[in-house]
Design goal:
The complex is a heterodimer of chains A (257) and B (480).
Chain A lengths: L1 E10 L5 E10 L4 E5 L6 H9 L4 E10 L2 E2 L5 H7 L1 E4 L6 E5 H15 L7 H14 L10 E2 L5 H15 L3 E5 L7 H14 L5 E6 L12 E6 L2 E6 L2 H9 L16
Parallel strand pairs in A: 3-10, 3-11, 6-9, 9-10
Antiparallel strand pairs in A: 1-2, 1-4, 4-5, 7-8, 11-12
Helix pairs in contact in A: 5-6
Chain B lengths: L1 H6 L2 H4 L20 H10 L4 H15 L39 H10 L3 H8 L9 H15 L2 E4 H7 L1 H7 L10 H9 L4 E5 L13 H4 L8 E6 L4 E7 L10 E2 L2 E6 L4 E8 L13 E10 L5 E8 L4 E4 L2 E4 L5 E10 L4 E10 L5 E10 L4 E10 L7 E10 L5 E10 L5 E10 L2 H9 L4 H17 L4 H14 L6
Parallel strand pairs in B: 2-3, 3-6, 4-7, 5-8, 6-8, 7-9, 8-10, 8-11, 9-12, 10-13, 11-13, 12-14, 13-15, 14-16, 15-17, 16-18
Antiparallel strand pairs in B: 1-2
Helix pairs in contact in B: 3-4, 4-10, 8-9, 12-13, 13-14
The chains are: A alpha/beta (257), B alpha/beta (480).
């Protein structure tokens, strides 16, 4: 489903390379976790796959369902089925959650030749999805993320994922800022949403999340590269030993990380 | 969205066609003099007192200086070569909408303007099913039944001279300012509305009339009087792009609300703003003022300003009656090289008077957008209250937003609150919405509509949807 080939990316116009040759293959039906210390490039990786204009891909390719999506705008990537749950969801004052979601849902539906929903149908549809993340329906009439607590913003991201039904979900530190109860609810939601036809990539600092969502593969990212890949037990090892023991792997071919 | 792509160049393009087709004008000598003023008055068969009103204004104007205190720079109009009076003889009639320029039609479609109205706006002969004359007649009958007088100011001068004499110039005196004096001397036409005592005007004065009022000329004059315990809502302008040969527009609007009366005046303005380099475009220098003469009266201005090269406009309320209320809700959008200096004045004179100002300025491109407002609480205005909120939104790096609030209180019981914010539509905000599948242009439109929500909800329902779309169209392609 997703294939990253020697992906290099830098901050547009600044020449600072952040991704230094990432190789990653995610297959349909899988859950992957990407772990790593602060500043290793995990969030950048998610943004680059989603097409954030701040970053420029200087080398390599991103294949989605076998085709390069490098030339696609962020909205076109979303239409193709890429979803990014933001680490810091953005506030949009004056625009209600239900307005945004209906607009999103219908735009994506139209681009895929699916039928759009009228406001009444859509209202029924999203209320059903609300239950998945145990959110109060009042929330639909509130402005997008405006005045939300950190936890509410994160839950909102997963709620959007439930509504939009993407095929590839990149969840950028969705667990940070959630208390233990909210973490359980959100994790269960993600588990329910995940199926044979979609893939999930979790970006996280902590093994904690992986108690609730069992990954098929765990990758460690350091210095803009994936330096180690393993099964779910790798996460436990990281929890115990930290990242220090992997630092040396970040220096490849004599080049500093 | 392919529709969006097709419309990309729309804003600059559509004015090249359609509205500028040859129209025969009854030409007058250029420039202005007492003779020209007399000629205008004679042409309109005006009574002596009206001619005198004009001449007095003209003489006052010759002694006045063109103002330059606002935050805008532009080439001054050449008053001695302007054409002060022109009435279109006849509009060219097209056979069907297929003859209308496709760009214009696309704009209409995007704004959601009904088919029949599209025809009227573009000068297509209207078919029998939708006979504008009969609709006009139906409206007239309905209004007459309620006792509401609604006609052109020229007709009012002829048929209701006492009312016009009593009220015209009573809110905006002829010496009020340079452009008001000029308007008083040479005004072409405009609307007159009188709502009698204890009457609620049975309809929004808008639906049909927004088309009917299109040809009022560059010096429009409007007078609205709401008698005791009456209510009227008036809508000026329309969302469709408007082109005019006349570069200078200097209108005067006067509103008078007596005891317990309420006037709601809404404006949507989308005149030609000039090209990318700021060439061409309309100067919109308007004097709009309402007087809450009676106790418990209320005047509410709502405006959506999206067009014109230069806009200088401060719809104001004089709160004379005790407990009277003044409101100003404004959205001003500037893009490309547009300049807007707009705001309001709230003059508190009566006791317990209340005013609210909500202003939303959106700047994009190389434009400049200023809010200028004055709140004045006079000595006698016990317990006057004002709340002002001025928010600016910037799109891109090359535009400007400014706020000039003037506050003056001569009564210690007065309460004035002022809040101001400035925000920038950020790359992250747009990316967030794009990641949810929404195109860049639609994302900006959504953000801007959210920003203006408090003001847009004050517009009459039938225009709210068009207004939403208009904002989007105006800002298309303004990022990246």
């Amino acid at each position: 489903m997703l294939e990253l080939k020697d992906l290099h990316a830098e901050v547009e116009g600044e020449g600072i390379e952040i991704l230094k040759g990432v190789n990653l293959t995610v297959t349909k039906g899988e859950i992957h976790a990407i772990m790593g210390p602060n500043g290793s490039g995990k969030s950048t990786l998610a943004k680059v796959v989603a097409g954030h204009p701040e970053y420029e891909v200087t080398k390599g390719d991103i294949l989605f369902n076998g085709e390069s999506i490098l030339e696609l705008d962020p909205d076109e990537r979303a239409h193709a089925g890429v979803f990014l749950a933001f680490q810091y969801p953005v506030e949009v004052p004056g625009v209600t959650n239900s307005t945004l979601l209906r607009e999103s849902y219908n735009t994506i539906a139209a681009s895929r030749g699916r039928e759009e929903m009228d406001p009444l149908e859509f209202d029924d549809y999203i209320r059903e999805k609300l239950e998945l993340v145990e959110m109060n329906p009042d929330f639909l009439g509130r402005s997008v993320n405006a005045g939300f607590s950190g936890g509410e913003k994160k839950r909102n991201e997963i709620f959007q994922m439930a509504v939009l039904q993407p095929t590839l979900s990149l969840l950028d530190e969705t667990d940070s800022g959630l208390d233990i109860d909210a973490l359980k609810i959100v994790s269960e939601g993600i588990n329910k949403l995940h199926g044979e036809d979609d893939a999930v990539v979790l970006i996280t600092h902590y093994q904690r999340l992986l108690n609730y969502i069992i990954p098929d593969k765990v990758h460690v990212m350091i210095g803009g590269r994936i330096v180690k890949t393993g099964g779910k037990e790798l996460a436990f090892e990281l929890e115990e030993r930290g990242y220090d023991w992997l630092e040396s792997l970040a220096t490849v071919n004599g080049e500093a990380k | 969205m392919s529709e969006t792509k097709a419309l990309e160049s729309m804003i600059g393009e559509d004015y090249k066609y359609g509205f500028t087709t040859d129209v025969e004008y009854e030409d007058f000598p250029k420039g202005i003099s007492e003779d020209v003023v007399r000629m205008i008055s004679a042409k309109k068969n005006e009574p002596e007192w009206m001619t005198e009103f004009r001449l007095k204004a003209y003489r006052a104007w010759t002694e006045m200086e063109e103002p330059s205190w606002f935050n805008a720079t532009y080439k001054k109009p050449k008053f001695d070569t302007l054409q002060y009076y022109s009435a279109p003889k006849n509009k060219p009639k097209l056979d069907s909408l297929d003859d209308v320029d496709p760009n214009i039609r696309e704009t209409y479609e995007k704004l959601g303007i009904p088919l029949d109205e599209q025809k009227m706006l573009s000068g297509v002969a209207v078919d029998a099913v939708f006979d504008s004359v009969s609709i006009f007649t139906t409206f007239k009958e309905k209004l007459a039944e309620a006792g509401v007088i609604f006609c052109s100011i020229s007709e009012a001068i002829k048929n209701h001279p006492d009312l016009v004499k009593k009220y015209m110039g009573s809110v905006v005196p002829i010496r009020d300012n340079f452009y008001a004096a000029l308007n008083s001397a040479v005004f072409s036409d405009g609307s007159f509305c009188y709502v009698p005592k204890d009457t609620i005007c049975p309809m929004e004065l808008s639906t049909y009339f927004r088309i009917n009022n299109m040809n009022s000329g560059q010096f429009e004059r409007t007078l609205i009087i709401a008698e005791e315990n009456s209510h009227v809502s008036y809508l000026e302008g329309c969302t469709a792009p408007m082109y005019d040969e006349n570069q200078l527009h200097a209108a005067v609007v006067e509103l008078i609300a007596l005891d317990d009366a309420e006037i709601k005046y809404s404006t949507i303005q989308n005149w030609y703003a000039g090209d990318e380099d700021g060439k061409g475009g309309i100067y919109n220098f308007v004097t709009k003022r309402g007087a809450c003469r009676g106790k418990n009266s209320k005047i509410s201005w709502t405006q959506l300003e999206t067009g014109s090269a230069v806009t200088l406009k401060y719809p104001s309320v004089i709160l004379q009656g005790d407990n009277s209320v003044g409101e100003f809700f404004s959205v001003a959008v500037t893009n490309k090289r547009q300049q807007a200096d707009t705001g309001t004045k709230m003059i508190h004179i009566g006791k317990n008077t209340k005013s609210t100002i909500i202003s939303k300025g959106i700047s994009a491109g190389n434009s400049n957008n200023s809010y200028r407002g004055e709140v004045k609480i006079s000595k006698k205005a016990e317990n006057a209250r004002n709340y002002s909120q001025c928010d600016s939104m910037l799109i891109g790096q090359t535009c400007g937003a400014h706020t000039f609030p003037y506050i003056e209180s001569a009564n210690p019981t007065g309460k004035i609150e002022h809040e101001a914010t400035t925000s920038r539509v950020g790359e992250d905000q747009i990316f967030y919405l794009q990641q949810r599948g929404i195109s860049e242009d639609d994302a900006i439109s959504l953000i801007v509509n959210g920003f203006c929500k408090e003001v847009l909800k004050e517009l009459p329902m039938e225009f709210a949807v068009e207004a939403n779309k208009l904002l989007g169209i105006k800002l298309e392609g303004s990022v990246g």
